[in-house]
Amino acid sequence: MESEIRDIRIERFAYGGEGIGRDSDGRAVFVAGTAKGELVRVEITETHPRFARGKLLTVLEPVAERRTPPCPHFGSCGGCQLQHVTYEAQKEAKAECLRDALNRIGRLDWNKPIPVLSGPEWEYRGRTQFKLERDPQTDLVRAGFFTANSHHLCEIETCRLLDPSLNEVLHLLRKTSAHVMNRSEGTLDVATDADRNVPLEQPPTLSVSHPNWGWPTGPITRRIGRFAYTFDAKCFFQVNLYLFETLVAEALGSDSGRLAVDLYAGVGLFSLPLAERFEKVLAAEESGAAAHYALRNVSQNNIRNVTFSRQSTESWLAANQKLTNRVDKVLLDPPRSGMSPKALERLIALKPGKITYVSCDPTTLARDLRGICAQGFTLHSVTAIDLFPQTYHIETVAHLERL
């Protein structure tokens, strides 16, 4: 069958990192590795009733924002999608994707500015998960990340997104005999306490998820503002070493009052600073590991006005409807899937004065904001925080108020 070749003008970025253009039939065509405004020649690889996907063959008319990807693994490794355009173009694209989600999915007609707060675009990750395999030729470990759109290993020599201490782990892994791997051990989570906002006085401490490798598996502690947070490699913690305080400050805003609720609270990243602003903070976290560290963090920071519950957001809200009309602020940071319909319903029934929604996925954020705004809340502000340069991922902080 003869391949279908089309010349496409790229109109914008899609959430996911692909460029979108339209062919002569008006069909939307998604093409990875392209930039807004470019004329590109593509080979159509997937055809669907309403859209198609194409493989980039050549850039006929490049734009000034195009650059040579600094990483030799770009295009093979699935970790990055946007290295081929300048960082300023990446931030602009992310704001456009966020606005599109709010307007198209959320039906919010959001035309106000969307600031994009950012830090260094390289060496920002303080946590990662390496994919591991045995090399049958050398009997050494092969380490890296998944190849784009697959579960096959893309072996990596150095990742420019990682803190140097994590790249050192990667280099040592690739020199290690594979006999230390268990049959079921195909990944290794690694976290560092390196603080790149201050001069390093001593080598950073590492935590890994499995003891076989010789690195410590115990907790590490990071200071954010005046608080110390303890966690380990198996526990969720934000990855960007430069933007912790920026994220916390944006989520808290200038709010204060009597009662705040922190949902999907993790190890207490927001709970602890909320305790400085509110007379009482109630927090809920479903993960046992995260809740364990949250209680430890409350104690080691000598905080007396935070009550932590190990339970899901949905069940916590069901058990605390007696607080209806008494909560000044709810701060929530759900997983990528957003809130369940029942949790959303119970959140709205709580009738808090303000809601701050921290999200890592614009599509589920827009879906949930649509439901909240339909029940008596108004969207006050939207700010993007680029915790994940070179990738399509976007962190968003949305502030809402009850009418």
Helix content, binned percent? 10-25%
CATH architectural group of the largest domain: 3-Layer(aba) Sandwich
CATH class descriptor name of the largest domain: Alpha Beta
The H-and-E topology, N to C, reads as EEEEEHEEEEHEEEEHEHEHEHEHEHEE
Radius of gyration: 23 Å
User: How far is the N terminus from the C terminus?
Assistant: 60 Å
Alpha-beta content class: alpha/beta
Strand content: 25-35%
Number of helices: 8
Give me the CATH superfamily of the largest domain: Vaccinia Virus protein VP39
Major β-sheet profile: 8 strands, mixed
Overall number of strands: 20
- How are strands sequenced across the largest beta sheet? 6-19-20-18-17-14-15-16
Which topology of the largest domain does CATH recognise? Answer: Rossmann fold
Enumerate the spans where pLDDT stays under 50 for 5 or more consecutive residues.
none
Structurally, how many domains make up the residues? Answer: 3
What global shape is seen? globular
What is the arithmetic mean of pLDDT?
95
Which keywords apply here?
Rossmann fold, OB fold (Dihydrolipoamide Acetyltransferase, E2P), globular, alpha/beta, 403 residues, 20 strands
Description:
The chain is α/β, with parallel strands linked by helices and 403 residues long. The protein has 8 helices and 20 strands. Strands 6-19-20-18-17-14-15-16 form an 8-stranded mixed β-sheet, sandwiched between helices. A 5-stranded mixed β-barrel has the order 1-2-3-5-4. Strands 9-8-7-10-11 form a 5-stranded antiparallel β-sheet, covered by helices on one side. Helix 1 (87-104) packs parallel to helix 8 and helix 6 (313-319) runs parallel beside helix 7. It is globular and about 65 Å long.
